[in-house]
């Protein structure tokens, strides 16, 4: 391991200790550990997800939640074991961000220290949720793609999607990037590898318990617009001007909103996600530097951010998905994009969990904090898309190069 890793790792571990001992970083009054511990206890006792108990997550999340339970399923023992497991994942994420920064022409040391600050910017929610597991898999997939191992990279995305669904939005970006580089064979073979991974394990879950697997899909389809999401903010705005009443609904393990046009908002949300992913996919495939690895990584992480920012659910821990975009933007010296992501993280830290109940009661200042957070995420999307556009001068030079090479000028 290179020497520059050790100071950053020490900073990360120190921040982790802060999330266990020092307020406000250690504030974990709202977390998912109780749910995870319940699942782990079932599995340690020999139960199987979907068949023996309701399991709301994809199949490969089960091992992530089970492993800390091997060391005890009492609340405190599970809490500590889970924190250690996620710390190890945080170290892996830090190393992957450094490797990607170096690979894509960024400053490796900047990426290391940006990653080391994760506990300070995210607080206890970082270690009380398993979102770093799929984040790490996305970064592995991107590193494999950048290293010329497209089939393995796309297969890794399939594994990530079966841990927590969002890595799947990177697939169209990666395929567009490969096709843009003329690697059509790698693209379709990688797509088949991804489909094979997802299909095989999904069929295994279905065979284990058809009713249980279908119940999980139904659970997410029926989930209402989550109260902190961008669509929910729009519904609250409609309520504020007298256009329908937005009512709080407690269901699916979180708080949602019911409104006369909630279904329309949900549909628009899904459409916006698809449009955003399409835009980032197109951007990954075009431009004078269409083959650049930085373009792939930026477009992929922006697509993940779009899924978090525009989807019908925006739980605070989804900001963990967004963190790599900010860390690598810092390594690439993209100051505005770094600032937008950092602002979104800081505002989330202010609101959750300390003022979450104030938000539910629509306390004006905290509502404003969430609105600004969602706007910061939207700004990050705009800044990322702008960065992905070819500059006119470079485009003209790119068009002239074939003529110059042929001796025609």
What does this structure look like?
The protein has 19 helices and 3 strands. With 409 residues, it is an all-alpha fold. The chain has one domain (5-405). It has a 3-stranded antiparallel β-sheet with strand order 1-3-2. Helix 5 (108-116) packs antiparallel against helix 15 (319-331) and helix 14 runs antiparallel to helix 15 (319-331). The longest helix is centred in the N-terminal third of the chain and has 29 residues, at 75-103.
Produce a short descriptive summary.
Helix content is 69%, strand content 3%. With 409 residues, it is mainly alpha-helical.
List the helices and strands and how they pair.
Layout (H helix, E strand, L loop, with lengths): L4 H17 L11 H12 L16 H9 L5 H29 L4 H9 L1 H5 L9 H15 L3 H12 L8 H11 L3 H25 L1 H12 L3 E2 L3 H11 L6 E5 L2 E5 L3 H24 L7 H18 L8 H13 L3 H17 L4 H5 L3 H25 L3 H14 L4
Antiparallel strand pairs: 1-3, 2-3
Helix pairs in contact: 1-4, 1-5, 2-3, 3-4, 4-5, 4-7, 4-15, 5-15, 7-8, 8-10, 9-10, 9-13, 9-14, 10-11, 12-13, 13-14, 14-15, 14-18, 15-16, 16-18
